[in-house]
Amino acid sequence: MYKAIIVDDEAVVRVGLKNTIDWAGHGFELTGDYANGRDAWEAIEQDKPDLVISDISMPFMDGLELAGLIGGSYPYIKVIILTGYDEFEYAQQALRLKVSDFVLKPITAREIRQLLDKVRAEMDEERQRREDLSRLQSQLKQSLPILRERFLERLVAVGLGTAEIGDRFAYFNLPPLSSGSVAIVADIDDFGDRELLSYEHDAEFLRFAAFDIFEEIAERVDALVFRTREERMVAILTGAGDENDLYDTAFRYAEEVRHHIEKFLSFTVTIGVGRIVSSPEMLPASYKGALSALDYRFLHGKNRVLSILDLEGQPEAAPMPSLSWDRKLVSTVKTGSIREAQDLIEHGIAALKQSRVPIETCFLQMQKVVLSLMNAIQEVVPHDREASIDSQMMLMEVYRFKTLGEIEDWLKQVVSAVMTEIADNRNHLTNTQIHRAIEYIETNYANHTMSLQDLCRHVHMSTSYFSLVFKQHTSETFVEYLTGVRIAKAKELLQSTSMKFYEIAEQVGYADPNYFSILFKKRAGMTPKDYRDRLAKESGI
């Protein structure tokens, strides 16, 4: 059963569509009807329906503007436009917004039923196409040659020189990368309700089904994709324009992949987005950033898009050791608990004891661990914040111990101090970004075009992660907080000036005075006029 909503400012149209159509009989659940695009957009952000049927001409936000927002944030939602305007320019604009259909009013109940059947057939066909494992098995045999995948894996994991990159790209007929590139890594969380009970090789078909979605969506943004030996899915997005635009494209791509895999395959993936690098030779730095973002799955849960910029800010690039124990320990230090880190130290020291390697080898191993921890601090703690841990002393202290047991106790203390430093910085970074966001809102509240995207660009955060931490810090969504600031400013103007209500509405960021009055009454419990009258009565004027 697919979810649908109706958006039309004419109540008779909404009532007619609700009562004359057997929605369930056509495969749809009608989850709501709305009189304007703005209310509908709030519902879409919360419920994410599969189909939106909308009029064009409506107050506050028209149908074409609503279709544009849907296409930008949720491209998988189908949109049908109903309109009484038989003009070519409206149809042209609807086509540019990639709406599913453009229908002229008046439309009969029979035509609506046929339209619903057509849309349902398209959705069923798409679902069937994605779930047809026999088709995917056939495509698996025709997938990209293994040499191409291994080359791309070496490109992001190890790094290659300019000459080899040029030769290999030409050999594999790959499009050249622009000056800016970013790596995206997707990892299957688990198979959810599709746990494998019969044949082990079915797991490969499910992985290939996920990669098929990953690859199909990548074609729309001209991304290079491949699978690693660890069965992760990697995409390289490139673009010579503004970095914010490239990040926006990366987040939209990752979110669409995450949504489609959950919807059509019934299991989930977590996706990490790295930092933008200026040349193909530097892709390993972006790839490592995407892998580090994936490590935060432990903190934030499965089925998410995680950006290394959101989680660790924008540090200077620093090389990371490649030893397995080093990496596991650093990953745990960043995202795990002190107990988990100490358990890992105990296992590592025990392995060294069992190996019976020379004492100098043990010291070198410990130095490499300490260097990894120092790099973790440099990545996460900005240079303008003084770290409480003396890195040079950390390196020198290794040699003052006489047993691995003493080194183990010391390393546990060092790790505890590092984890405290990283946690303090993470809180500082998030608090700083939220403080900047609040300052931006309170400075620009009068701009009626201000959006969540504008705010996130200003504080350099993705919209999904910003919404999460902003709600945690303020107990309100961006829209709720902005509305609160605007209404508070309006109250000040109502008390201290004799400005007309429409002038006050414009001063606090509302181009529509009627919408301002609705929001004011919703927040203050009375209309602007009643509020001013009450103030006058209380002051005895």
TrEMBL record:
GGDEF domain location is 179-310
Q: Show the InterPro entries listed in the entry.
A: CdaR_GGDEF, CheY-like_superfamily, GGDEF_dom, Homeodomain-like_sf, HptR, HTH_AraC, HTH_AraC-typ_CS, Sig_transdc_resp-reg_receiver
UniProt keyword list: Coiled coil, Cytoplasm, DNA-binding, Phosphoprotein, Transcription, Transcription regulation, Two-component regulatory system
Which Gene3D superfamilies does the entry link to? 3.40.50.2300, Homeodomain-like
SUPFAM superfamilies linked to this entry: CheY-like, Homeodomain-like
Which residues does the UniProt record annotate as the domain HTH araC/xylS-type?
A: 435-534
Q: Which GO terms describe its biological process?
A: phosphorelay signal transduction system
* Localisation: Cytoplasm
Q: Which residues carry this modification: 4-aspartylphosphate?
A: D55
Q: Identify this protein by name.
A: Response regulator
Species name for this entry? Paenibacillus sacheonensis
